[in-house]
Amino acid sequence: MCGITGVSVLDGAAARAAFDGLVTLQHRGQESWGVAVAGPGGVRVRRALGFASRSDCGDLPGRPAGGVAVAHTRYSTTGATLLENSQPFVHEAEHIALAHNGDLTNAAALRVLLGREGYAFRSTSDSEVILALLAGAGPREDGIAAAEGTGGVGTGAPGSSGRVVAAVTRAVRVLRGGYAVVCAAGDRLLAFRDPHGLRPLVAGFAPGRAAVASETCALDALGCSEQREVEPGELLILRDGRLEGAYRVSEPAPRASCVFEHLYLTRQDSRIGGVRTGATRVAFGERLATESPVDADLVVAVPASGVPAARGYARAAGLPLAGTLVRNEQVGRTFIEPDRGRRERKLRNKFSIGSPVDGARVVVVDDSIVRGSTMRRIVTLLRESGASEVHVRIAAPPLVAPCHYGVDIVDTGELVAAGREVEEVCRIIGATSLAHLSVAGMRQTVGSVAGEGLCEGCITGEYPTPVDGARDKLRLVPAQAPRHATPPGALHPR
């Protein structure tokens, strides 16, 4: 779920623009951030642990000739929270810098093969596999690079777009899973996306500036009024602040964009399919009120991501919406906190009661339940504040299966709804009653506003690509990959 930005400018500070766009995506990752600038003169990078929005950006890397920069804010799904796993990743010899959002399902197998060919990995992030492929490592037998040579996308000087297309096409043929990538390569900015569109990526344009980002809110902040989606399986090449070319680099595949982007991940003022996600979540709440009404006195929203759904629920139910819960904005998103102990400590300080609910029958509305710890804390606070009943309504179906494509839902043992009936979950969180938005209601609502195919793996356990069922965030070894038999299909084209 990381946030990525890429900027190409005709004349100006590419690093500053990339960083400014990145700050708007802080909700997508808070473990580390980084900015890299590439040009014919080389690559410069700055990375740091923590929040970009709380950092001193005065010493961002300078601008080599070319005016191309990429930036990344990390929410880890593969690899520990270490500086060496922070992005953008840089390949000095090829003069390229890469930022990636998503998760590769065949990263371990690719590392084994690339390690045998001599590539020395510096991190335990799957994203470095993509860097290695774009730098020219990997197979030659597929013949893709024959016409343009067998090098990578970086040249150290202006080069052929045909060579870039060939290198990206060769990489995409062997990558599996979800990925949205921005890459500074010489004087070009590259942006491409997996064939199913599992992870989001949008492009925007303004005079003298072209930008790519995980969400439209970043493009809005950069003044890019002309916007478009990077299509699944598409490569955009941007140069001198404009679109140089758009290319198909994979075979067509069924669309499967992440439903969790609609439910929770994306900022409320960002747009998916031209519709603001805040409006979609209001519609989720309205549908939820129709499906699961309750005799109550008022509706309480869980700030901040649960507010739109609560507004929709209150409106459809004809109940007042109370601003009872106060959120500590300094805590950040506890869902994306990688360490359980820190997550629990932050949760204790995340919410407080702003106004009492003495004797009231309360409907508390949130966007989702993952581990259950947040809702259990909220129910306790409301009861301590005097609520006579606390009815929980969730504007998403139960999450019961891992995500394999870039959301840190790894162990089903952490998912409170996995293997449990609704009544048991209700007892665990201490609520009077509990109800979720139905899968049919979710699909109908998203279909009416976005009209696209969805990946619902975390809800249904059915995935758009083959997965092995096992997920381990720390599955990649820290140094050279061990020498053992290459798993079948490790580096074969689709």
Quick description:
The protein has helices spanning 14-23, 107-116, 127-134, 161-174, 216-221, 259-265, 277-291, 307-317, 340-348, 373-384, 422-429, 439-449, 457-460, and strands spanning 3-9, 32-39, 42-49, 68-74, 89-91, 96-104, 177-185, 188-193, 202-206, 209-213, 226-229, 234-239, 242-248, 257-258, 271-272, 275-276, 298-301, 321-322, 325-327, 351-353, 361-366, 389-394, 433-436, 454-455. With 494 residues, it is an alpha+beta fold. The strands form six sheets. A seven-stranded antiparallel sheet has the order 3-2-4-1-10-9-11. Strands 5-6-7-8-12-13 form a six-stranded antiparallel sheet.
The Rg value, from CA coordinates, equals 23 Å
Structural class: alpha+beta
Show unreliable segments.
141-149, 479-494
Strand order of the largest sheet: 3-2-4-1-10-9-11
Biggest beta sheet attributes: 7 strands, antiparallel
Q: How many helical stretches? A: 13
The fraction of residues assigned to DSSP E strands is: 15-25%
State the end-to-end CA separation: 25 Å
Which term fits the overall shape? Answer: elongated
The helix fraction, in percent, is: 25-40%
Q: What quaternary form is this?
A: single chain
- Average pLDDT taken over every residue: 86
Count every beta strand, where a strand is a DSSP E run of 2 or more residues: 24
